[in-house]
Amino acid sequence: MKELIDIVAAYERAVNENKKTALATVVLVEGSAYRRAGARMLITEDGQLTGAISGGCLEGDALRKARMVIMQQQPMLVTYDTMDDDDAKLGVGLGCNGIIHILIEPIMNGRANPIALLKAAINSTGYSVLVTLFSTENRKAPQPGSTLFFSDRKILSKGIESTPYKNELLADVAYVLARQQSIVTGYLGYSAFIECVKPLISLVILGAGNDAIPLTKMAAILGWNTTIIDGRPNYANSDRFPLVNKIIVAKPEKVLEIVDFNEWTAFVLMTHNYNYELAFLQNILPLHPLYIGVLGPKKKLERMLSELADAGIFITERDLEAIHGPIGLDIGSETSEEIALAIVAEIKAFFSDRNGQPLKYKNSVIHSA
């Protein structure tokens, strides 16, 4: 998601500077490659690159082809075969063992141009789907490119209304959204990369102390939507937290009147104020959020839960699973920066449904799709 956010921001800067642009999208990988299908890169006519389609070895050649696409205003499908001696002679040197298909398309004004579809995915509060159509059978045939954004609340499309495979495509889109897994399939000589896009993680931090500063910086690097909440205006302000999306100064019982949250929201309690956090938990637990992280020793959390139970707050097994205390992965953290790293890693693992174990012990492939 961070790559999509950066690409949209770079495109808007390019528009303001009257620069023409193209979007390169990895649509199909056969074998192994550094980036998987869904990796994207924005290219401006003067050679500025945002995002990445490889580890750095394809970008130079893709830039040359993107300039041709911008000049001709026609999409182009480019294939790099790392098992082909000809590609080795071109100096690609991918260091992988696969075939990578990249669609490069010019970005023109319009309601459903590629950037409009990416914006819709970024703004979606749940899972959404992006569809990119291309032809590997006939590279000289028209390459439709980015054609559809779909979610349970909104649809944007370009050029699929009159296609004979419209109903079949929409059925596959609905399947991908329900399964939450990207696929590549085909229709009448065209392939479709039907990509399931995860929603943006929202991080709500209770506490504007100094140890929250590195946490907001790491969240900003990842592109998360971050909110800082504290009752002290001299702590919770933009001078101390310039990278957060929202700053709230409020009492704990007023917080939920101001904060919108969904299943992709992580709450982190790090106020170092026992009563503030207790009052917040009392208000939020009945709403059953999926992730609450509490900084501090386990005894502190046990005491809080005991006091809430004595106050008549019913705490379910699901609530207990959602509460992570002490928060963070066990990486030997001591400094505030190291603690922030442990917290960010645990939140990312949670929302990716992973356990945070070292990859060397993983017996299956890293990315299933």
What does this structure look like?
With 369 residues, the chain is α/β, with parallel strands linked by helices. Helix content is 33%, strand content 24%. The protein is built from eleven helices and 16 strands. A six-stranded parallel beta sheet has the order 13-12-11-14-15-16, sandwiched between helices. A hairpin with a 4-residue loop joins strand 2 and strand 3. Helix 1 crosses helix 4. The chain is elongated, with a radius of gyration of 23 Å. About 2% of the residues have low confidence.
The low-confidence parts are: 88-94
| Category by helix and strand content | alpha/beta
Element pattern in H and E: HEEEHEHEHEEEHEEEHEEHEHEHHEH
The tally of strands reads 16
Global mean pLDDT: 89
Report strand %: 15-25%
* Number of helices, where a helix is a run of at least 4 consecutive DSSP H or I residues: 11
Span between N and C termini? 16 Å
- Rg over C-alpha atoms, rounded to the nearest angstrom: 23 Å
Shape: elongated
How would a textbook summarize the main sheet? 6 strands, parallel
Q: Biggest sheet: strands side by side, in what order?
A: 13-12-11-14-15-16
> Residue share in helices?
25-40%
